[in-house]
Amino acid sequence: MQHFSIWSLLRNSMSYHEGWERQWRSPEPKREYDAVVIGAAGHGLATAYYMAKEHGMRNIAVVERGWLGGGNTARNTTIVRSNYLWDESTALYEKAMVLWEGLSQDLNYNVMFSQRGVMNLGHTLQDMRDLERRVNANRLNGVDAEVVTPEQIKEMIPFINLNTRYPVLGASLQRRAGVARHDAVAWGYARAADALGVDIIQNCEVQDYLWSGDRIVGVKTNRGDIGAGKVGLAAAGSTTLLTQKAHLQVPIENYMLQAYVTEAIKPVVNHVVVWSAAYFYVSQSDKGGLVYGGHLDKHSSWAQRGNLGNVVEVQQDLVSAIPFTSRLRLRRHWGGLNDMTPDSSPFICQTSVPGLYLNAGWCYGGFKATPGSGWAMAHTVAQDRPHALNAAFSLDRFHTGHLIDEHGAAAVAH
Ligand SMILES: Cc1cc2nc3c(=O)[nH]c(=O)nc-3n(C[C@H](O)[C@H](O)[C@H](O)COP(=O)(O)OP(=O)(O)OC[C@H]3O[C@@H](n4cnc5c(N)ncnc54)[C@H](O)[C@@H]3O)c2cc1C
């Protein structure tokens, strides 16, 4: 693999940048792999990378029905934080955070991880109690968190309107949190996994499974049958289509979430800011556009087109929060299918179907988990048992009642 550095940049500039190699191969699928991962996006690619890197597995393929990173990985608003309430979540997302902090170096690919801080605003006394409870829980778990006053918020974001229809009484702030470049995460993992021998096969849709008795032993695809000792499923919004074919019931329903970006302006929002009451949030991209979004659609669906009610609601929230934005043009908006679970927590687990492993249920918060999720999923697939980090994120919790109810915990979105 060609190493990226200031020296390789200089060297290639001498030859008009015509000497760069392709970032990953486009191999034909082999007949048989030790493991096949379905879904070449953040979670699937990270899983394959850590299976190869940490567990020495080399005969692995990641199959993708479209193009690499075309799912929610490239549709999300890239908030990365680890300030979850419950211990199980904190451990998993903090593992991800630590991996994020060294990811560009590890992958030798700039994922543009920017630790600019994520602020969750409180609008009522109850919001403030919830935020304080969360900050205390985070600190007990060794995660950085603090409560900031309206004056401190105004100092950090001078343009903010604190006296909107949701008056701001304070906020929680995780300074190590921030954003990353979504495509770069998929590309960085793809390049690094490919360098370790992982076959990434695009335009290869899994249509069914190959069985030997009650065991899954491969996948049927539009490019032929591919045998696999193990099959990992990381298909986000398409999860239930594929679990259905495995006769496995999972508590996941799809809801669409939209996001928006304005034309580029000078830096005005230097943090990620979340208005808890409205579920509205905004950050500013490195190109200058304000990137923002609101709540899910109110009904379950498979649509990936925006619905107008949400467009209107979110623009109102933006203008009410930062009034001068009424003069900005909306440049683009788009939607993605979120695999929602009843307790807002994911699954990284073995399943009751031998040979099938599940990584799903990330709701609207899976981007931030990508490195930790892939790391834990790789352990689970390679070792045939969960790591302590993901033991609680099993399908069993809906039988045992040990739910990890992050949604019920407090109004902190994304
Ligand atoms: C608008 C929006 C904003 C969001 N904002 C944030 C945020 O700020 N922070 C955050 O942490 N999270 C956020 N999320 C959630 C986050 O994007 C997802 O949880 C995460 O990207 C899921 O990653 P993934 O790798 O599991 O899935 P995806 O990126 O969706 O990848 C799944 C892949 O599986 C492939 N696939 C599906 N079916 C098949 C098949 N049959 N055969 C082969 N391949 C198949 C798909 O083509 C796709 O490439 C947001 C989501 C949306 C929609």
Question: Can you offer a commentary on this structure?
Answer:
It contains twelve helices and 18 strands. It folds into two domains: 189 residues, FAD/NAD(P)-binding domain, CATH 3.50.50.60; 145 residues, 2-Layer Sandwich (D-Amino Acid Oxidase, Chain A, domain 2). With 414 residues, it is α/β, with parallel strands linked by helices. The strands form three sheets. Strands 1, 2, 8, 9, 10, 11, 17 and 18 form an eight-stranded mixed β-sheet that branches. Strands 5-6-4-13-14-15-12-16 form an eight-stranded mixed β-sheet, with helices on both faces. Strands 3-7 form a two-stranded antiparallel ribbon. Helix content is 30%, strand content 24%.
In short:
With 414 residues, this protein is α/β, with parallel strands linked by helices. Helix content is 30%, strand content 24%.
Fraction of residues in H or I helices = 25-40%
Bound molecule kinds, no repeats: flavin-adenine dinucleotide
What string gives the helices and strands in order?
HEHEEHHEHEHEEHEEEEHEEEEHEEEHHH
CATH homology superfamily name of the largest domain: FAD/NAD(P)-binding domain
- What is the CA-based Rg, rounded? 21 Å
Class inferred from helices and paired strands: alpha/beta
Flag low-confidence runs.
none
Shape: globular
Under CATH, the topology of the largest domain can be stated as: FAD/NAD(P)-binding domain
Extended strand count: 18
Mean pLDDT, to the nearest integer, reads: 95
Number of helices: 12
| CATH hierarchy class name of the largest domain | Alpha Beta
The total tally of domains equals 2
